Amino acid sequence: MRAIATGLLVLMAVVFVCARLLRERYPFMAFVGAFAEAAMVGAIADWFAVTALFRHPLGLRIPHTAIIPSNKERIGDNLGNFLEHNFMSYEVIHGELARVDFAGSAARWLDQPDNARAVAAQITSAIPALLRMVEDKDAAAFLRDALAGSLKDVRLAPLLSRLLSVLVAGRQHHALLEKLLELIAGALEQHRPYIRQKVHDHSPRWLPKAIDEKFYERLMAGVHSTLDDIKGDDSEWRERFQLATEELIANLATSPEYEAKLRALLDSSLGHPLFRNYVGQVWDDVRARLLADTSAPDSKIAAHVEQALQSFSSALGRNETVQLKLNDWLRTFAAETIVAKREVIVDLVRRVIRSWDAETLSRKFELHVGRDLQYIRINGTIVGGLVGLLLHSVGLLF
Fold first, then answer.
1. Alpha helices, DSSP H, located in the chain
2. Band of the pLDDT at 276, cuts 50, 70, 90?
């Protein structure tokens, strides 16, 4: 484009010379000459303006030329400020991320067997390396200190509140309740002889056995009836369970007392000698089993992880409520994180621009916008010529 614009200037110069030589023989060449003369002026003026942005024209240090190299640091600062205030605000970032369906895209991608298998293989292959790292005493001590430090800054109660709200949004807490009721009912049926014997053992000796048996049957019938009532979707038990769950979520999110209780429970559990000894005894056996399984071609862990990923993706894909909540949390987290670190990002932009030498900066700008700037030279040549032709025509009228 630069060659075309320069070639057009040379062409106008040739036309101007030819018009000057032929105007005595051909009077209309005066119009051609006026056009070419003004076109050269417009072309040279626009060449000077375009060139002055990136370098000194013809190497002459004319004031207010080489504008971009001379103002490199100011350009970096202004560009950083522009990015910080126009692109890295919470509203802009959150609004842009609102177009992205993180949860839905992840669910659809993981629902593909090949993708789930690849992720499962990656997770499984990382287990031996992780185990070898944890085996080292220094690494283990570092991990324990890092875990303790990270948990120290985590507010457990609000975190648990958010996790419970996900279960509530997908009504998974009711599914969990139903599963628990099924387990209780199954345990009662399985241990009927034991329960009957316990009732007989605690009954008075003078009580007839038939009455004792009748009491046992009514007790079991009452328990099963209560379990059936709880299973009902519109039962009072379900309503109480829902209200209690919502109250617990609210208390976990706002009550300092719940946070203190959870923190005390966690600290006492992690610091108890029995807990440490038990974990140490179990660890060796678990580690050996994990290493043996992950190194096997038909790893059960890989198969279970793959199945879990596909089950999770299928469940997530069907549950729009959880998708909406996850997407909202991810957008909020990403937006808040970027906004919190925007000064670091903007400072990186400024440092990179400042680190460029003037020639590099000028070349990068010219590569990005130079093509359009050469059109300015071409347009200046044409417009200048037309203006010159118009002025020549007007001059003949007076």
1. 2-22, 29-54, 67-70, 72-86, 90-97, 102-110, 113-135, 137-153, 156-169, 172-190, 192-201, 209-231, 236-254, 256-271, 273-294, 300-318, 320-340, 342-355, 358-396
2. low
